Backbone:
């Protein structure tokens, strides 16, 4: 019986990471798959490492000679027996829920032909990569750069076979960008889901760094894409639009954008309203950057109100989604790196935020998003309340998904290191709650550092600080109560009620939670 998913894993000069990559795939919660290991004559001990595995789901291919990434991937596509084809690089790591999440998304969205997921970077560089989830926005992004994260993508084999869509070796190192543009031109729908389920290793001098060769290929791909969409486009207009992504002069950008809008009006491919809004948003951002170099009131008054506020330093808040922000509240969105990029707090649609007069919300780097959604039809709302004298400090990018209720009560401090919390969080902070970096918290989790009431005759304080360490994974329906410290690298099993400390690198579960295993690690 054929598997549901065929995973393409090309191998070339990555033997030192191969075992880690394979183990992450073999640890997936979704198990109906085959792993097609495509050894492109790697000059290392990759074959010896593969010999250590005796899993029938691993299918091995050793080419007679080095064929190049695009060609070897096409060999894997021809070998694939699954309905879905998944990609992964042999020096990266897939988190356990990756395949289950992406396959479920494609099964429940039959109109979508491909989905990728967000990535967390590690190695020589850290951070996150998350691309647009709306298919129309994905199409527009293709005008600027590759709209899909290749290594974390999963697509319907049948959809791509219908148009004989394969990788082209001549487009390496932008072979993925080329494939996505041709797929979009044929009408396929591509999306990115926001959850970071893939760990992308950055190595020194990695091929994904911007090189002259990559830039040349990207221009070639954009030109072919635009010619396919707008066959009557004049050469002078085509050359201008090709430079759209590199234009920094707002006046020149607006002129060039108008040429693109006119071409799209004549041969509609992009949603006209969405395209215009996207281009205007970019134009406003360029206007703001121009003002930082040379301020003029005339130019400043051409900005839209939200961009005016963003330029003055309070912004990255999407104002229409906030409620009851007191003017005396302190909003600190620090400028952190050398290019003075502002960092942001974003309240998605359906988020309600209340900041008391003497409260403060600080984003040191990255972004803090509230009411993030997997799906535009997600009906849930979120609430963030920061009372007088209370502080919320976000040290790195942190996403709180829909249905959250977060209360930072009078004088309390909530610190968020970095990571994400899935749907329906219930967090009440009365004194101090600290959540570390690289934390993954599932849905329906409750975190409270206060009992609200006390038992008569009890000497135990009603409020005690909670600390959740770095790289902690908390399962769904978990409750974490006052005075608890969860160590770095720990895992809390679904349904647990945590009332006592959990050591570093331990698995805890049960009611009340007890340590079930020590010395663990997870990806």
Residues:
């Amino acid at each position: 019986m054929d598997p549901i998913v065929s995973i393409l894993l090309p191998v070339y000069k990555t033997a030192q990471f191969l075992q880690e990559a394979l183990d992450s795939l073999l640890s997936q919660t979704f198990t109906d798959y085959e792993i097609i290991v495509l050894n492109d004559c790697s000059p290392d001990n990759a074959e010896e490492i593969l010999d250590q595995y005796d899993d029938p789901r691993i299918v091995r291919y050793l080419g007679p000679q080095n064929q190049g990434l695009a060609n070897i991937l096409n060999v894997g596509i021809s070998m694939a027996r699954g309905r879905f084809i998944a990609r992964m690089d042999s020096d990266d790591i897939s988190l356990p829920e990756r395949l289950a999440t992406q396959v479920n998304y494609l099964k429940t969205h039959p109109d979508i032909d491909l989905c990728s997921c967000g990535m967390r970077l590690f190695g020589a560089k850290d951070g996150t990569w998350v691309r647009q989830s709306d298919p129309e926005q994905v199409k527009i992004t293709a005008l600027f750069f590759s709209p899909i994260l290749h290594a974390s993508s999963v697509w319907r084999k049948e959809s791509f076979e219908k148009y004989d869509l394969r990788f082209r070796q001549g487009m390496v190192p932008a072979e993925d960008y080329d494939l996505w543009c041709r797929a979009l031109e044929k009408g396929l729908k591509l999306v990115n889901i926001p959850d970071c389920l893939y760990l992308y290793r950055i190595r020194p001098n990695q091929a994904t760094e911007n090189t002259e060769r990559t830039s040349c290929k990207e221009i070639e791909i954009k030109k072919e894409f635009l010619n396919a969409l707008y066959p009557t486009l004049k050469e002078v207009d085509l050359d201008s639009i090709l430079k759209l992504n590199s234009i920094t002069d707002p006046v020149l950008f607006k002129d060039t954008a108008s040429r693109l809008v006119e071409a799209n009006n004549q041969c509609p491919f992009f949603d006209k309203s969405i395209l215009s809004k996207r281009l205007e948003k970019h134009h406003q951002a360029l206007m703001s950057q121009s003002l930082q170099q040379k301020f003029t009131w005339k130019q400043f008054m051409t900005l839209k109100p939200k961009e005016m506020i963003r330029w003055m330093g309070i912004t990255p808040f999407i104002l229409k989604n906030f409620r009851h922000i007191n003017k005396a509240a302190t909003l600190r969105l620090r400028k952190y790196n050398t290019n003075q990029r502002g960092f942001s707090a974003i309240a998605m649609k359906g988020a309600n935020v209340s900041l008391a007069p003497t409260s403060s919300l600080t984003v040191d780097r990255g972004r803090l998003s509230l009411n993030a959604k997997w799906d535009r039809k997600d009906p849930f709302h979120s609430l963030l309340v920061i009372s007088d004298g209370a502080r919320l400090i976000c040290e790195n990018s942190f996403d709180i998904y829909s249905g959250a209720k977060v209360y930072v009560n009078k004088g309390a401090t909530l610190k968020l290191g970095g990571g994400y919390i899935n749907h329906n969080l219930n967090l009440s902070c009365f004194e101090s709650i600290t959540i570390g970096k690289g934390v993954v918290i599932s849905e329906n989790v409750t975190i409270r550092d206060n009992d609200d009431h006390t038992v008569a005759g009890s000497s135990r304080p009603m409020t005690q600080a909670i600390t959740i360490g770095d790289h902690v994974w908390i399962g769904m329906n978990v409750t974490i109560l006052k005075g608890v410290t969860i160590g770095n690298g720990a895992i809390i099993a679904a349904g647990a009620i945590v009332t006592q400390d959990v050591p570093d690198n331990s698995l805890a579960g049960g009611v009340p939670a007890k340590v079930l295993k020590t010395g663990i690690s997870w990806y």
Observations:
- The two ends are 30 Å apart (CA to CA).
- The first strand starts at residue 5 and ends at 11.
- The chain has three domains: 5-206, 230-297, 316-518.
- DSSP finds 13 helices and 32 strands in the chain.
